[in-house]
Amino acid sequence: METAAVGFLTVSSAVTMSAPFLLGKVIDTIYTTGTDTETMAASLTSLCIMLTGVFLVGGAANAARVYLMQSSGQKIVRNLRASIFSSILTQEVAFFDRSRTGELINRLSADTAMVGRSITDNLSDGLRAVAQAAAGVSMMFYVSPSLASFVLLIVPPVAGLAIFYGRYLRSISKRTQDALAQATQLAEERISNMRTVRAFGKELSEVNTYTEKTDQVFSLARKEAVLRAGFFGVTGLSGNIMILSVLYKGGLLMASQHMTVGELSSFLMYTFWVGISIAGLSSFYSELMKGFGAGTRLWELLDRKPEFPLNEGLVLPTDQLKGQLEFDDVTFAYPTRSEAPIFQNLSLMVPAGTIMAVVGPSGSGKSTLVSLLLRLYDPDAGMISIDGHDIRDLNPYWLRSHIGTVSQEPVLFSCSIRDNIAYGAVDQEAVTTEDIYRAARVANAYNFIQAFPQGFDTVVGEKGVLLSGGQKQRIAIARALLRNPKILLLDEATSALDAENEFLVQEALERLMEGRTVVIIAHRLSTIQNANAVAVLDQQRVVECGRHAELLGNRQGLFRKLMEKQAFLQEEQQRALR
Ligand SMILES: Nc1ncnc2c1ncn2[C@@H]1O[C@H](COP(=O)(O)OP(=O)(O)OP(=O)(O)O)[C@@H](O)[C@H]1O
């Protein structure tokens, strides 16, 4: 496609460039003396008919060139967007701890658009300008070498200026895209957490902060405008000076009989063409430099290799998977806060098919334990294993396909309930409506979903804002059920649900846990009592582990203290209710 585009470009440019030469001939035919009017009219007619044909071909070739260049440019943008998105999604989780959502979104939308524009509109017109300038200059030399070398003296200083201009523009463009990314980041975070902004009444101050950020973009844009104004002023001026010098020097050459009026006219038209091409080249060059500037961060993102692979490593036969989990002497600190260890020499064993409740003070690392099992992070020392296999040797994709999760505040996507439940399946395409209904029934979600006017096609709103906490939980349970995992990682909701919701969620969770290895961050006494064992996290390790009753027996133990505190709280709550 690109080759065809270049072919059409050559044809259309050849036509455009031959025009002044042929028009010069027409003028010379008109001015020819010594022939009778009839002969002159005949040759003028045939010359004009021929020229019309040539122009028609040129017009068609130009249209074809624009179409091909545009569509192949857009294809490049599409591929660029897809590659950037794929590169973002394959990064390790720690990358997302460091990067900000809005910034990444800006890269994906604004930066790619900028690079796209510099490729699409620009490359095609730019190539055309280059071709025309080159052909124009050659024709100028062909028509009159002495006049051409005189006129083109202006080119070297303008080219020198362009190089400086390009460098500066590139750096401004990069800074502009960075400033824009910051503004987008702020907007994205505030808009997606609008309820909090409203609750704290921060609309006005957020608008001010956003305006400050956009002011930075504006001030950079102003710098760019000054720069452009200067550059375009100079290129426009140099174009006019070129024309003027052609008329001056050409006039003298004509006076001394070294040039005909047709030659001077041709030369003048070529000078115009070269002038126009230089103007085209300037904007091509500007856009290209801006594209390079905006592209810098994109290339960085494209070249970034994730710290751990997504789909490489050992895959065990599914029927051999038992689901025994073990932490062996694990030491871990989050990569973004490597000086603050979360675990030191932590060991914990969860036999296959049993339920391990994890309790501990806030910040003791209960959620971190779950993240490590999902291999969102790797431990700094020690080993985490499943059925004796180090999870670092296993294919992460395979590993996660056997783990189901339900978090405290389950995240749903803004699509239908049906799609949200189907999201849990390893092969989403293979899920039948019956599978989804079954999962919803087991999760006690079927009835309330069917009661919605649109049933399973109800769209849940961004992050599921159109549902209650208990409803979201039950949909998340149905989603986990559809995956039918050997291992379950659960985070029990702390927020109080009403009695009926609580019962329904509890019942659904119990059905979900049946026959699986479960690690549950427990908040309810009943969950702790029903678990096969309880692990108490504190001071970067497991301080106590055993059955509920055993742990209660240790009067000095942390578990007993935690339970007493909880019992105390429950009493308080009950008293308040009364
Ligand atoms: N992505 C992260 N990057 C850096 N530090 C983190 C990250 N996530 C959690 N932490 C830190 O790790 C520690 C343990 O957090 P974690 O969420 O595992 O605790 P938790 O026991 O689940 O707490 P809670 O009961 O309050 O939910 C905290 O001090 C927290 O600040």
UniProtKB/TrEMBL annotation:
Please report the record's description of how this protein sits within the membrane.
Multi-pass membrane protein
Q: Does the keyword ATP-binding apply?
A: yes
Q: Which residues cross the membrane?
A: 40-68, 147-165, 225-247, 267-285
What's the domain of life for this entry? Eukaryota
Every ABC transporter domain range:
325-564
**InterPro entries given for it?**
AAA+_ATPase (IPR003593), ABC1_TM_dom (IPR011527), ABC1_TM_sf (IPR036640), ABC_transporter-like_ATP-bd (IPR003439), ABC_transporter-like_CS (IPR017871), P-loop_NTPase (IPR027417), Type_1_exporter (IPR039421)
Q: Which is a Pfam family this sequence falls into?
A: ABC_membrane
Q: Which GO terms describe its molecular function?
A: ABC-type oligopeptide transporter activity; ATP binding; ATP hydrolysis activity; identical protein binding; metal ion binding
List the protein's name. ATP binding cassette subfamily B member 10
Query: Per its UniProt record, what CDD domains does this chain match?
Result: ABC_6TM_ABCB10_like, ABC_MTABC3_MDL1_MDL2
The Gene Ontology biological process terms listed for this entry are:
oligopeptide export from mitochondrion
Q: Which residues form the ABC transmembrane type-1 domain?
A: 4-290
Instruction: List the subcellular locations.
Output: Membrane
Q: Keyword set for this entry? A: ATP-binding, Membrane, Nucleotide-binding, Transmembrane, Transmembrane helix
Among PROSITE patterns, the record links this protein to: ABC_TM1F, ABC_TRANSPORTER_1, ABC_TRANSPORTER_2
Gene Ontology cellular-component terms for this entry are: mitochondrial inner membrane
